[in-house]
Specification:
The complex is a heterotrimer of chains A (653), B (105) and C (547). Chain A is built from 27 helices and four strands. Chain A has 653 residues and is mainly alpha-helical. The radius of gyration of chain A is 30 Å and the shape is globular. The termini of chain A are far apart. Chain B contains three helices and no strands. The chains are: A mainly alpha (653), B mainly alpha (105), C mainly alpha (547). The interface between A and C is large, with 58 and 65 residues.
Chain lengths: 653, 105, 547
């Protein structure tokens, strides 16, 4: 039996775990924690092993063709959609990241959540998330992707609102779900357009046709866009929601209301990168819509710099990481929009490791601080929690782009591609963002781990390194944060960029049909390339150095800047007032409008006209009633008049 | 004994119409219940006259038989009606129909 | 000569329709005031009825080919049921019942909801259990009769029969303003259906004029080709009757009142089945009888359906009463069904039919849950709730689950229906579909608001701290619905297959006729060549493409 044939178990196991834990949670609330852990960590663990076996077999198989496994038909008849899985280079990469990082975050959770009352419920949700995420990346058609897509959205909703007895987390969860739904609306529209044109949603049936007849997608379709442009735009709006891009990024910072491992798994490593995955998956369409590609890149770049700038002034350690995630996702879209799909996936992979690591590290800190998230009350923690400190520092080095670490290679790949396609403006934004990223991350490290401890005496007394269930995942992920970049060392540094070559079968090749596509990636002179490399390293180092200068000795050096430019500080501190603007411009007016519709229209006009009809009927009846005088002679008169009328009727001709 | 053949049917009809008109006027204007009653009898008998007249004209007995029925019904009606009025009078001490308007509205 | 007794003995459909009505008689013999006996009797009858229904459907199932078409049944082709009997022979009115893939799912849903209704009413209904049982049993007879009726006059009769028990259910066991709501419900529905009666009579008279004999039979009246103006008027009469039942904007205002006042069981049946008879009527009668008029009215009706979707959602969003929120959500959800029907596309029709069932299941469950909460707290106002998840986790699970099904979360039933509707209608009505898809966003907005206001957040009210979680009885009532929600969501194909041949042939005929020019004078089409036509064959061979 081939382990590839067990591919269906990969999503099925976590879902089964979720169902099992969910049922026990509902009907046997007194059950001990041990079974919860066993099921909650065990099922994703086995799932990871199956996934690794399948990947191993796929990579070493005699047949390198994509592997597809059909389970059953979702609908039959004229429009048949199968529930089927696909293993190709792209899903192999995603599968590895999701199961591997996911499993270690599960292990970490067993420690981090051990004192929470909703322990079993937590694992039910988290397993369900794993199952949905695996559906998303393994599906061989857009429907299965969408099932996973919404499924992860649901789990995100449930997990953000995990502390449901407080008022903020459920609201944040709701916001996440609804903002995501706005994106889903566009995603669905794009799917309908594709289905209407191709009669199927299966990748292997659409993309070859697209590659075979690209002209058909270049015809005008709607909104002044070509068909490819329309679908690409719809899909990208979907991605905006899931991957927190301008203007739909607002839910992600709020999502930090959930437990920290959730932030690591869902809001950093896996779910939020689904949009990038989707864009890369549909690269055949995006390649035919360069105008949308540029739009994607611009949105990505602006998201990157906007979020990074907000990250500069955050004091909540998770908020810093949240804005950092938004910013890094912007990077990925910058790459994907410019056609550097492998670079986007590369950064997705490295980011999954180092950002998960950073989040788990922050979780370890928060755990030690007894729930405190404000960095102003931390300090000098490196003395108390060396493992957390060193792993966190490695993660920071990776995200800051210190040469040799994972983030360095992937970020450089993106900047390289930006420059190579001649988008120097976007390149400048990317470079600036790199500097800002290095700055705010080092600021966070300095505020948390250096200087004097600024918390209460009691907190200081409780400071401790986290138990091994939490530190082991940190160490594992730290290895990834350092080394995951080595799979894609660019040629200029003596590597073979093997990651790029591994993924290239997934990238549609139009060079035969559309010659102009071939020249889109002009070769660069090696000297220019070196110059770019040095610039990006320099940007990172400047950010690191300046942050150390300002914060390294345990002072808040940034305060002087805030004093000097109070308006700018306020703008950043209030996150450009985006939430407030949405509230004023959309939510409040819509609420008032709805209330008007209900009270002012539905009740008054629609139902009012019904009641008016009833009233008119009643009134006429009241009038008619007056003829009933009770006097026989009046009745006789009516009778007589009636007879006269009859006579007139009969004799009228 | 029979009327001379020369009496045309129109005489019957004119008589009937006159009787009927008197009946209608009486029924609409009288306030006394018995009076209304008598007027109604008048109208019934107007119809009877017309029936008899036509019966003679057409040489048909049916009309005359009909008249017998009408008379029987009228008698029954008179009996019931008078009984009702007596009952009403016992209750209300009046048979002025203007004041018998309990069934109003 | 077939008599009614023969039918009762020999025809399972007749038995299915009249067993509930007949089962009302023994109720008279039950001791007065002993509610327990009545309850168990009601449950027993409804379960027997459900068993009969399932057995019948299973016996009629053609593996791979779904369900025989209506016209085959009418011809008695290959079906063991005896033909119907003349009812009012002088006017060609026949008592004829038939079932096909379109009515079958709705009939089964009715039968499934009936025992569930009795289960959820177990504690909530405190008075007149015998009459309560009788009302629901009669209602079932009316619903099944309307679904199975083959003769339009008989359809109309059953259509009206449904009205009275529902009127009583709202008016007797309802909330504070129950009489107002009941009368409003009655008058609205009556006003529409009387016009439909006029239209039915018009059709029959026209048929008599052309064919020389009286007939109210569906298949006969389908042969009428009418001038466009006549068609439009008659279509309007039918459409009004059905639109009120659906309900479509702007004739929907009876619904929130009726739902808010109706007892839980009444709401379940009202939302689960009665509303579906409106959409069923469009699918079965209004569209096929007047194809050209339907095409002409399509933009208007699509507009109303879209208004229903968006307007219902927005108004639902700002409600302060939980039940009213669910009621307005029904308007939005049925807007989707109408959109699917008006797309005149097979996938959309399949989706619409599936969505009718889906809405019955998930909204039925929501109404049950609201009722369970009402049984405990005697209020439905959001102000009184909040943070309930901490006290009643099992209830919370069900509420979240049903809400998500209603939101249209993939892998649950609501998504399957909505997805197919939108997918199908995108081909013919792209922009309307995009607007409707936005309704999916709004669905999340108002339904998640409901969850937030009831389940999440701090537990503030003292009264809520001692609430009891669901009993076994309540869970047992919800369980079949939950299973169906999941099953339809994961493998909707199972549920689409039986109705496909029927929908396919209906749609094919619709398109053929809609493409023809309307005559200046009413004419009669030639009898369709049924024996040769054998419409189940062609689609079925395609169906066998299973992997």
């Amino acid at each position: 039996m081939r382990s590839l044939d067990l591919l269906w178990l990969v999503p099925a196991l976590p879902i089964a775990g979720a169902a099992l834990n969910g049922l026990i949670c509902l009907f046997w609330p007194k059950a001990g924690k041990a079974t919860a852990t066993l099921i909650g960590v065990g099922f994703p663990g086995v799932s990871m092993l199956v996934a690794l076996a399948a990947i191993w077999q796929y990579l070493h198989g005699t047949n390198p063709a994509p592997f597809e496994q059909t389970l059953w038909s979702w609908t039959t008849g004229t429009f048949s959609i199968p529930i089927a899985f696909l293993l190709d280079p792209l899903s192999v990469v995603m599968l590895f990241i999701v199961t591997f990082v996911g499993f270690w975050i599960h292990v970490y959770s067993a420690g981090y959540m051990s004192h929470e009352p909703g322990y079993r419920r937590y694992f039910a949700y988290l397993n369900l998330f794993m199952g949905a995420m695996l559906l998303l990346i393994l599906g061989n058609n857009f429907l299965v992707m969408f099932v996973g897509w919404e499924g992860v959205g649901l789990c995100s909703y449930l997990l953000i609102g995990f502390y449901f007895d407080q008022s903020f987390p459920p609201q944040a969860g709701r916001k996440a779900f609804i903002v995501n739904r706005i994106g889903d609306f566009a995603f669905l529209t794009g799917m309908f357009a594709l289905a209407a044109k191709y009669g199927t949603l299966t990748y292997s049936k659409i993309f070859p046709v697209v590659v075979g007849a690209p002209e058909a997608l270049k015809e005008h379709y709607a909104l002044g866009l070509t068909f490819a442009g329309f679908v690409a735009l719809c899909f990208f709006i979907g991605a905006m929601g899931k991957s927190a891009q301008i203007p739909l990024y607002v839910w992600l910072p709020d999502a930090m209301a959930g437990p920290t491992p959730v932030s690591a798994l869902i809001h950093a490593a896996t779910m939020v990168t689904a949009g990038v995955y989707m864009v890369v998956r549909s690269n055949a369409i995006y390649q035919l819509a360069p105008e949308i590609g540029t739009f994607v890149a611009v949105i990505g770049a602006f998201t990157a710099i906007l979020a990074a700038s907000i990250g500069l002034v955050q004091n909540d350690i998770k908020k810093v990481l949240a804005y950092s995630t938004v910013s890094q996702l912007g990077y990925m879209f910058l790459a994907a929009g410019l056609g550097a799909y492998t670079a986007a996936v590369f950064h997705l992979g490295t980011h999954a490791f180092f950002k998960a690591l950073l989040f788990l590290g922050s979780g370890s800190v928060i755990h030690a601080m007894g729930g405190e998230q404000d960095m102003r009350k931390m300090g000098n923690l490196r003395k108390f929690m060396p493992v957390t400190f060193w792993t966190f520092a490695l993660g920071t080095a990776a995200i800051a782009g210190v040469p040799g670490f994972a983030g360095f290679f992937s970020k450089d790949e993106i900047l390289h591609n930006t420059a190579a396609t001649g988008h120097w403006g976007l390149f400048a934004i990317g470079l600036l963002t790199a500097g800002l990223t290095a700055f705010y991350m080092v600021r966070a490290v300095a505020m948390t781990f250096f200087g004097k401890f600024r918390g209460t005496h009691e907190q200081e007394h409780h400071l401790h390194e986290s138990p091994w269930v939490m530190t082991v995942p940190l160490l594992v992920l730290a290895v990834g944060a350092v080394g995951s970049g080595w799979v894609g060392i660019p040629e200029i540094l003596g590597g073979g960029n093997s990651f790029h070559h591994f993924l290239s079968p997934v990238i549609a090749d139009f060079s035969n049909r559309l010659p102009e596509h071939a020249v889109e990636h002009p070769e660069m002179a090696a000297s220019t390339d070196w110059l770019l490399l040095i610039a990006s390293v320099a940007a990172g180092l400047i950010g690191i150095g300046y942050a150390f200068k300002l914060y390294g000795r345990g002072e808040f050096g940034g305060a002087s800047w805030a004093r000097r430019f109070p308006a700018v500080y306020r703008l950043l501190d209030r996150k450009y007032w985006v939430d407030e603007i949405y509230d004023r411009l959309i939510i409040k007016p819509l609420g008032s409008f709805s209330r008007f519709l209900w009270k002012g229209f539905d009740d008054t006009i629609v139902d009012g006209s019904v009641r008016a009809l009833a009233w008119a009927t009643e009134l006429s009846a009241e009038g008619g009633r007056l003829t009933t005088t009770g006097n026989v002679r009046h009745y006789a008169l009516y009778f007589f008049l009636g007879v006269l009328g009859l006579f007139w009727w009969i004799l009228r001709s | 004994m029979s009327l001379p053949n020369s009496v045309p049917v129109s005489w019957f009809l004119v008589l009937a119409a006159l009787l009927f008109a008197i009946g209608v006027a009486g029924a609409l204007t009288r306030r006394n219940g018995i009076g209304i009653f008598l007027s109604i009898e008048l109208m019934l008998n107007a119809a009877n006259v017309a029936l008899v007249g036509y019966s003679r004209l057409l040489g048909e007995r049916t009309g005359q038989i009909m008249v017998l029925f009408v008379m029987a019904v009228a008698a029954a009606e008179a009996a019931v009606g008078l009984g009702l009025f007596i009952a009403v009078y016992r209750q209300r001490r009046t048979i002025d129909v203007n004041r018998l308007n309990l069934m109003r509205w | 000569m077939t008599t009614f007794l023969d039918l009762l003995l020999g025809d399972t459909l007749t038995r299915l329709v009249f067993l509930p009505a007949a089962a009302c008689l023994p109720l008279l013999l039950l001791p007065k005031g002993n509610a327990k006996v009545a309850k168990f009797y009601a449950l027993l009858v409804s379960l027997v009825e459900l068993g009969l229904g399932i057995a019948y459907v299973a016996s009629r199932w053609v593996p791979g080919g779904g369900f025989p078409l209506l016209r085959d049944v009418a011809q008695g082709a290959g079906v063991g049921s005896p033909p119907g009997m003349p009812w009012i022979g002088a006017y060609g009115i026949r008592y004829d019942l038939a079932i096909d893939g379109i009515s079958m799912p709705l009939a089964l849903l009715t039968l499934l909801l009936l025992p569930i209704v009795f289960l959820v009413s177990w504690k909530g209904i405190e008075k007149h259990w015998r009459s309560f049982t009788a009302a629901f049993l009669l209602l079932t007879t009316g619903i099944l009769g309307a679904l199975f009726a083959y003769d339009l006059f008989v359809f109309y009769m059953f259509w009206e029969v449904m009205l009275i028990p529902m009127y009583l259910i709202i008016g007797i066991w309802g909330g504070e303003r129950r009489v107002y709501a009941a009368v409003k419900f009655f008058l609205f529905t009556m006003a529409g259906s009387l016009l439909m009666l006029v239209a039915i009579l018009w059709l029959a008279f026209t048929y008599k004029g052309l064919a020389g004999v009286w007939s109210f039979a569906y298949q006969d009246l389908l042969r009428l080709d009418l001038p466009l103006t006549t068609q439009c008027w008659l279509f309007a009469a039918f459409a009004l009757a059905f639109a009120i039942k659906v309900p479509m904007f702007p004739v929907h205002t009876w619904l929130p009142d009726a739902h808010v006042e109706a007892p839980t069981g009444g709401s379940v049946i009202l939302a689960g089945i009665l509303l579906k008879l409106g959409t069923y009527g469009f699918l079965r009668f209004a569209l096929p009888l007047f194809p050209q008029a339907s095409v002409k009215a399509q933009p208007w009706l699509v507009g109303l359906a879209l208004i229903g979707i968006l307007y219902g959602a927005l108004v639902a969003w700002v409600q302060v009463d939980m039940k009213k929120l669910v009621a307005y959500s029904s308007i939005a959800h049925l807007g989707f069904v109408m959109l699917g029907l008006l797309a005149f596309d097979l996938v959309a029709w399949q989706g619409a039919l599936l969505q009718m069932v889906n809405h019955g299941i998930s909204t039925g469950a929501l109404f049950m849950l609201v009722g369970m909460l009402y049984d405990r707290r005697h209020t439905k106002k959001f102000d009184e709730f909040g943070g309930l998840a901490a006290v009643i986790p099992i209830f919370s699970f069900w509420l979240v689950f049903s809400t998500l099904a209603s939101v249209g979360l993939p892998a649950l039933n609501g998504f399957a229906g909505e997805f197919l509707i939108l997918l199908g209608s995108y081909r013919t009505l792209p922009w309307a579909t995009v607007a409707a898809t936005f309704g999916v966003v709004l669905a999340a907005v108002y339904l998640l608001k409901m969850l937030y206001l009831t389940l999440w957040g701090p537990l503030t009210k003292e009264e809520n701290k001692s609430l009891k979680d669901l009993s076994w009885r309540e869970m047992f009532a919800l369980l079949p619905l939950g299973v169906l929600m999941l099953w339809i969501g994961i493998a909707p194909g199972t549920f689409l297959a039986p109705s496909r041949p029927a929908l396919e042939s209906l749609l094919a005929e619709f398109h053929t006729r809609a493409a023809e020019a309307t005559p200046d004078e009413p004419t009669l089409r030639a009898l369709p060549a049924i024996a040769i036509d054998a419409p189940t064959d062609a689609p079925m061979s395609q169906d066998g493409e299973g992997r």
